[in-house]
Amino acid sequence: MKLTATTLAIVMVTLTACASGEASQTDSTSTEFDSAQTSLESAVLPVINEQMEEMGIPGLVAIVASPDRGTYKVAAGVANIDTNEPMKVENHFRIGSISKTLTATVVLQLAQEGKLGLDDALAPYFPTLDTNGATIRQALNMTSGIPTYTPDQFLNDLANNPARVWSPEELLATTVGQPAEFAPGAGWDYSNTNYVMLALIAEQHDRASLGALVQDRIFSPLQMTGCSMPAQADSTLPTPYSRSYQYGTEWDNPSPPAPKPDLIDVTNSNPSWGFGAGEAICTADDMAIWGRALVAGDLLDPEMQEERLDFVTGGAMPYGLGIAKLNGLTGHQGHMSGYQTQTTRRESDGTIIVVLTNITQAPDGELPATKISELISRAIPLQDK
């Protein structure tokens, strides 16, 4: 499908909340509030239009919640390229590695409750695997040295059997025989294997599925009603949802700027290969709730939140215990078959920026939600006091 100017048109824009951040109806008599709304729209909308065209994004949803300017929500493009169904703010997306923040929160809560220690070794939990002498903390902050089960070839091979249901044990088994990346604590490497292990540890301690743990400990307390973590065999999404797309079948072979390869619909790919590292589903509104709660530490005590925000540097990004710093924004991005997402809070003033796209990545390998989030942050100056 060729993306046209009509396809990329903004199909829904809503502006809510007063300058203090409290939800309210728009008051047309308030010059100050109208000006704040206009300021957000004029800053965000050009970024979205330009980047959707540049990166060939079929559709996206974005939310910007500013302490000074209120909340701006926008749905752009289409949720289905075959029917041209307009994107909706309430559509569900797979959020990919943002799921790591959920898995990490459950593990940190278990540590807070004294059920495990952050410096406990991984080995007792996985007696048949080489855990490289690493600890739970090192798995959380990606310094374990344990190799990832998702090298480029694994991701490319997903296209050959998209319906396959992976068990967590099968995912871990793909790493058997692979050498460690480095001694524990001696480096940094973004390894999804860490978060499959952490999810299994959480399930073992609370004797419940990861989905049930995340529902009881995170989604329900924060009223994130559009979120779920599906069963391993479940490839469906709650309605309404955006279909998901990918330029070609390979993740590791960016295409030249033109011509773009065909868009492939990968909506029905089974997400079980993500497990605790990437299989959650949410809406943009839920991600705005989580973007604030994650950084504020709403579900942890102050001491444990301080542990979470102890960032290690020297890798691709400063990384804490299931949380990252991304170009002046704190939170996490996600990358799943057909979706690329990000929820973050701007460190300078607390502005929440959520971007959910229905494409794995741009043809040149660029991560669209991550790039757009950074550009939105740059486009919204700090409010003069």
TrEMBL record:
InterPro entries: AmpC-like (IPR050491), Beta-lactam-related (IPR001466), Beta-lactam/transpept-like (IPR012338)
GO molecular function terms attached to this record: hydrolase activity
Pfam families: Beta-lactamase (PF00144)
Signal peptide start-end: 1-19
Domain Beta-lactamase-related: 48-367
UniProt EC number: 3.1.1.103
Keywords, sorted A to Z: Hydrolase, Signal
Uppermost EC category: hydrolase
Protein's name in the database: Serine hydrolase domain-containing protein
